[in-house]
Write the structure tokens for this entry.
Amino acid sequence: MVLTDSAGRLLFCSPAQPGRCADITHARQLGLVKHLVNDPAVEVLADAGYQGLGAQTGGRVVTQPHRKFKKNPPDWYEEIHERQRKAHSARRIRVEHGIAHLKNWRALARHLGRRDMSDTIQAIAGLLSHLQTVTRKAG
């Protein structure tokens, strides 16, 4: 799980967990829900893997709209759903750019899906966060 600020700068990168784990379960295990309930000033733009956290956090986790009609949706619904999905995607693009900065590091380029890379991912996240902080202060 990766958290960025609104400019796409890396704030947090969680360690990898052994085995498969759903995004929403990982967020709950890390205590994200507890932190968001207590902090009203935070809004988290998340992908579809976190659908359901919005209700638990008082609307602080915003995911793309859930599809209400799976089969034979009315024409008007398709248009509205697509517009909402694109609006969420446009707001979330900076988050994706922040994640992409991690993937640009050569050490992660080929081995990103491996679970035994947790220490390497944490080290690169720390270096990237430091680099972004130094760049922000210098600019």
